[in-house]
């Protein structure tokens, strides 16, 4: 079930990457150290979260150079450019998505019966988190919870925000991010790709006009 769902949601991941997310996202139990190779029990939702993070990291690649022929259905992403001189053979379906341009060089060929699509678009919109906020499988303690690189929170009455401050468990400010948004009432998803590591965050403060308007503690 898990491998099939990861492949369906994130076709840009290789078989090895799918396997790694599943095996490295188990719930660890000391009593399984000598009896199970992973020393734990499979966690479907943690595996999906790992796959989402891995897929996002692929989108962060500026340029992608393809030199090995496609052997399976593939989605290739790049923020800026894709360069390819490989074969797309029957019965494969291969899609390239890049932010600026896609260059098909000598040696690139699409065989009869295969399907190939090249699209110029921001790859960020291609990768969606595996859970809608209301489907969040983690137990919500208070108003906020987190996955590896994303944070769900509930703005019950709506708030105006100029910046967001992140604090560690010692109460130290570790990052301030300009935000400038009016958050409508309801649940929101915030991706933290390049700013801070979600594992280091203990408390989040939403600030407007120099004053705290809302704060949350995170249950990781």
Concise overview:
By secondary structure, this protein is α/β, with parallel strands linked by helices. The chain has helices at 2-9, 15-23, 44-59, and strands spanning 27-28, 40-41, 63-66, 74-78, 81-84, 87-88, 93-98, 101-104, 109-110, 115-120, 144-146, 150-155, 159-167, 173-183, 186-191, 203-208, 211-217.
What does this structure look like?
The protein has helices at 2-9, 15-23, 44-59; strands spanning 27-28, 40-41, 63-66, 74-78, 81-84, 87-88, 93-98, 101-104, 109-110, 115-120, 144-146, 150-155, 159-167, 173-183, 186-191, 203-208, 211-217. By secondary structure, the protein is α/β, with parallel strands linked by helices. The chain has a four-stranded antiparallel beta sheet with strand order 14-13-16-17, with no helix packed on it. A three-stranded parallel beta sheet has the order 3-5-8, with no helix packed on it. Helix 1 crosses helix 2 (15-23) and helix 2 crosses helix 3.
Identify low-pLDDT runs. 132-148
The helix/strand series, from N terminus to C terminus, equals HHEEHEEEEEEEEEEEEEEE
SS class: alpha/beta
Number of discrete helical segments: 3
Strand order of the largest sheet: 14-13-16-17
Which strand-content bin applies to the residues?
35-45%
The shape, in one word, is globular
Instruction: Characterize the main sheet.
Output: 4 strands, antiparallel
Number of strands: 17
Distance between the termini: 25 Å
Q: Roughly how much helix do the residues carry, as a percent range?
A: 10-25%
Determine the mean pLDDT. Answer: 77
Radius of gyration: 21 Å
């Amino acid at each position: 079930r898990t491998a099939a769902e990861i492949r369906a949601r994130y076709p840009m991941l290789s078989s090895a990457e799918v396997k790694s997310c599943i095996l490295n996202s188990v719930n660890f139990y000391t009593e399984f150290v000598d009896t199970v190779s992973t020393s734990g029990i499979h966690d479907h939702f943690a595996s999906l979260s790992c796959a989402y993070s891995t897929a996002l990291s692929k989108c962060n690649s500026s340029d992608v150079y393809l030199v090995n022929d496609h052997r399976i259905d593939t989605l290739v992403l790049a923020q800026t450019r894709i360069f390819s001189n490989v074969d797309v053979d029957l019965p494969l379906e291969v899609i390239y998505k890049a932010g600026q341009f896609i260059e098909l060089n000598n040696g690139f060929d699409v065989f009869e019966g295969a399907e190939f699509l090249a699209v110029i678009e921001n790859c960020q919109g291609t990768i969606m988190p595996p859970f809608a906020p209301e489907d969040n499988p983690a137990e919500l303690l208070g108003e906020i919870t987190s996955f590896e690189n994303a944070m769900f929170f509930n703005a019950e009455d709506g708030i105006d925000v100029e910046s967001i401050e992140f604090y560690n468990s010692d109460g130290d400010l570790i990052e301030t991010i300009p935000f400038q948004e009016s958050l409508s009432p309801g649940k929101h998803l915030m991706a933290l790709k390049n700013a801070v590591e979600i594992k280091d965050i203990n408390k989040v403060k939403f600030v407007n006009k120099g004053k705290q308007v809302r704060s949350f503690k995170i249950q990781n």
